[in-house]
Structure formats: C-alpha cells, structure tokens
Amino acid sequence: MSDTTCTERLTRDNAAVLLIDHQVGLYSGIVDIPLAELKHNVVALTKAAQVLGLPIIATTTATDSMWGPMIPELAAALPADLDVPDRTSVNAWDDPRVVAAVRATGRKKLLIAGISTEVCLAFAAVSTTAEGFDAYAVIDAAGTFSQTKRETGLLRMQRAGVTPIDYATAIVEILADNADPLAGEVYAALDMPFAVLVGQIAQALTKS
C-alpha cells in the first residue's frame, strides 16, 4: 500500500471500478443489507462511474453451476460490449483475465464491490493492495451472509491497508466540483434519496 492511499484523492484519471460476483445465487443469502438497497447501490455506482468515464471491470464465478447469472439490474447497467470473464477461482485476482483487464486501465486506485464481502471483495482487495494498488472497498455495494462475516471481512481488509468507502462518497470525490457540466447527470445516476428530497425542497422554495 502506498503511503498516500488515504490522502491522495480519487480522480477521473486514477480510479477504476471492479465488480466481483454480483450473482443471483449469492444474493439469495445476503442478510447484512436489504437486497433492494444493495442492488440500487451497485447499479448507481456503475451508472455514475460511466458518466465520469471510469473504466469498469466485472467478473462472475461458476455461473453455470453454483451461483447463477449476474443480477439482471447490474447486467443492464453495464456497457453492452463489456467482456465479463466467468472464473473458477475463488479469488478474482487469481484469474489472469481479470488481472490483465485491471492492469490495462492504467489506474492505481480500485473501487471494488463484491459478493461476498469477506471473500470475493476482501480476497481481491487484499491481493491488489499487496501488488501496489490502492484498494477501496465499496461497503454499501457489497454484502454477505452474517454480521460476523461482515465484521471480520472489514477488519481483515483494514489491517491489510484497504480503505472502506461508500458508493456515493467515492463518486462525489471523483466529481470534485458541483459546477462540473456532468454534475447533474452524476447525481441523477447516484439516485441518493436524501439528495432528491433536497432538490424538491429547493424547487419548492424557489417557487414560493
């Protein structure tokens, strides 16, 4: 891990998104976050990342046997031409296609979201950190099968130098300026309920 992991800003030039194993079979066991919220968050992360031009890498594992296809909401949000390698390895970083795709982005900061938190997310986050990347675990776009698994996964990642973050904070940091011409589209993609309410209040005040 670089000494500047927690202080160097996420930007459009240094960040990429890695989505690991958001599959219907794995989602069926999630208990630490409501499924509707989890789906909302990972889709919002994906859409907003595309607005900002961030590279996106996605991968699945054992789709034809154990864990089923990618959740349809995420599949619909990803670029139609995106290659999504289906692995046999538990750790996504053990698959040369995933490694090659990440390295091809030329980015050092990885926003990683995966199911489950303590395996698919943590294994990749720890592995990429060991190889010199700055890994950011997007905790509210991940989920797992018990509170114990969530807590132990978070502890392990933090001890390894992985930075926990939430999907909206990561994207807003990359946006950087609310005067940016893309700001409206980015916030629309993030679809944060409180931000929608704030906008409605502002509109009401303007009309009054």
Give a verbal description of the structure.
- This protein has 9 helices and 6 strands.
- α2 (35-51) runs antiparallel to α8, α5 packs parallel to α6 (147-159) and α7 runs antiparallel to α8 (183-190).
- It is α/β, with parallel strands linked by helices and 208 residues long.
- Strands 3-2-1-4-5-6 form a 6-stranded parallel β-sheet, with helices on both faces.
- 40% of the residues are buried.
Indicate the proportion of strand residues. Answer: 5-15%
Number of strands: 6
Biggest sheet statistics:
6 strands, parallel
Report the end-to-end length measured between terminal Cα atoms: 52 Å
Average pLDDT, to the nearest integer?
93
How much is the radius of gyration in Å?
17 Å
What characteristic shape results from the CA principal axes? Answer: globular
Structural class: alpha/beta
Number of helices: 9
Helix fraction by DSSP (H/I, runs of at least 4): 40-55%
For the biggest β-sheet, the strand order reads 3-2-1-4-5-6
Question: What is the helix/strand order?
Answer: EHHEHEHEHEHEHHH
Show unreliable segments.
Answer: none
